[in-house]
Design a protein that fits this description.
Blueprint: E1 2-6, H1 10-21, E2 25-29, H2 33-40, H3 51-60, E3 64-67, H4 70-76, E4 79-82, H5 97-109, E5 114-118, H6 126-137, E6 144-148, H7 158-163, E7 168-171, H8 175-185, E8 192-195, H9 197-228, H10 232-240, H11 261-275, H12 280-304, E9 311-315, H13 330-340, E10 344-348, H14 353-357, E11 364-365, H15 369-373, E12 378-381, H16 386-389, H17 393-399, E13 404-407, H18 414-419, E14 423-425
Parallel strand pairs: 1-2, 1-4, 2-3, 4-5, 5-6, 7-8, 9-10, 9-12, 10-11, 12-13, 13-14
The structure holds uridine-5'-diphosphate-glucuronic acid.
Length: 430
């Protein structure tokens, strides 16, 4: 099938790579010329394991082409996926102007039937607006369908998630649209859930918000564990053994970040508000998540008392491992709070330092974890990169001014690390 992907961000590029890998011809469009030139040269605009190889293979096989012109994609393709960004506005609602713009551009260039598929994360009823817009601008007599096909990939394992989905959700209002999407997804051999369009839109916001709620819940329980001298690892394991709850997303830590959960939780609150429902639970989820970052600073302070002029080594800057993405990363807030209190910050992340340099140009960036810990009064782990858990504890202890670790991701075994001679605090563990 010939498929157009409008918007070459994380979702767009991964979707394009996977569709091409399954034998489709994919036409990728982005209005950022620099990004398109980079992609044509085989360079990725962000780090995602496996993406570059898959894109390069399919460029070579001529199954992926890149362009800045929506018109070319509309001329050539039967189905057009919209995967442009939908950033949060200060109110928490999403800015949908890119979706509107792309819908218009698609409409004016249509000469025959097209299926327009909304893949960006959008509030419920957005597809109605897309439909309305296309209807207004499409040449008379040209038919079309709009569908919703939300994406559930995780950064860092996006290719795996897209090639092996738990489920594929398609929200459609015609048999023709349903058939096209089912044909396209058949090679993925996954369960396809067909719904009405608004329900599909809601499934995405509700899924991400539910996962964020699980994380805030377990972080709240971890805080109670600390007060009660119980152990969150054991509590989370015990809870997760109930099949109705499950173990996933019950890892306590410094809270969630990234481009999805924070934005989707506030987006869901905003759309619910505008429909007349006060989504109070989700407001608490947000609050708990932000408090978790403050608790990290409080833990550091309770160990060092005055942080002013003390050297604090930050291990991990990305919002999670295996990505260079720092959007809404807890580490950024923690660093900001510590700098405001006069601390000196040394930092290291295997992938995300170049991005953080743009936010904090004046802190010290290190070549590795040991250099970060060198002469530090305290080290704080804020992202659970594998290489941190495997550090040589003896070496680490010898280079620190005061061997103190505040483990915001519970990567170390408390007994082992105390035996190695460290003062150690983690999240929700005695
Ligand atoms: C999330 C969802 O997991 C995807 O299904 C969804 O498609 C995606 O958002 C999206 O909307 O595009 P992602 O943001 O890439 O994916 O990352 P996750 O792996 O879900 O992690 C999100 C945050 O939660 C990270 O900061 C992570 O450290 C944190 N987290 C996760 C915890 O603190 N505890 C956990 O147990 C799990």
């Amino acid at each position: 099938m010939k498929i157009g992907i409008i918007g070459c961000g994380h979702v767009g590029l991964v979707t394009a790579a996977c569709f091409a890998q399954k034998g489709n011809s994919v036409f990728c469009v982005d209005n950022d010329e620099q990004r398109i030139n980079m992609l044509r040269a085989g360079r990725m605009p962000f780090y995602e394991p496996g993406l570059e190889d898959m894109i390069l293979t399919n460029i070579r096989n001529r199954r992926i082409v890149f362009s800045t012109r929506i018109k070319d994609a509309v001329n050539t393709c039967e189905a057009l996926f919209i995967s442009v960004s939908t950033p949060s506005m200060p109110s928490g609602a999403l800015d949908l102007s890119a979706v509107e713009h792309v819908s218009r551009e698609i409409a004016v260039n249509m000469r025959s039937y097209k299926l327009i598929v909304e893949k960006s994360t959008v509030p419920v009823r957005t597809c109605d607006k897309v439909h309305q817009t296309i209807k207004k601008y499409v040449p008379r007599g040209v038919s079309f369908d709009v569908a919703s096909n939300p994406e559930f990939l995780r950064e860092g394992s996006a290719i795996y998630d897209s090639m092996n989905p738990d489920r594929i959700v398609i929200g459609v209002s015609s048999k023709r649209a349903e058939n096209i999407l089912k044909r396209l997804y058949k090679p993925f051999k996954a369960r396809i859930i067909t719904t009405d369009i608004k329900s599909a839109e809601l499934i995405k916001h509700a899924s991400n918000s539910f996962l964020a709620m699980k994380i805030s819940f377990i972080n709240a329980v971890a805080n109670v564990c600390e007060l009660a001298d119980a152990n969150i690892d054991e509590v989370a394991y015990g809870i997760g053994m109930d099949n109705r709850i499950g173990h996933a997303f019950l890892k306590a830590g410094t809270g969630y970040g990234g481009s999805c959960f924070p934005k989707d939780v506030s987006g869901f609150i905003a759309i619910a508000d505008s429909l007349g429902y006060n989504f109070g639970i989700l407001k608490e989820v947000q609050k708990t998540n932000l408090l978790q970052r403050q608790y990290m600073v409080r833990k550091i302070e309770s160990e060092l008392w005055i942080v002013s002029n003390k050297t604090i080594g930050i291990l991990g800057l990305a919002f999670k491992p295996d990505t260079d993405d720092i959007r809404e990363a807890p580490a950024l807030d923690v660093i900001k709070m510590l700098l405001e209190k006069g601390a000196k910050i040394k930092a290291y992340d295997p992938k995300a330092m170049e991005n953080v340099k743009k936010v904090f140009p004046d802190i010290t960036y290190c070549k590795n974890a040991y250099e970060t810990a060198d002469k530090a009064d305290c080290v704080a782990v804020l992202t659970e990169w594998k290489e941190f858990a495997g550090m040589n504890l003896k070496k680490l202890k010898n280079i620190m001014s005061h061997p103190t670790i505040i483990d915001g991701r519970n990567i170390f075994d408390p007994a082992k690390i105390r035996k190695a001679g460290f003062t150690y605090h983690s999240v929700g563990r005695p």
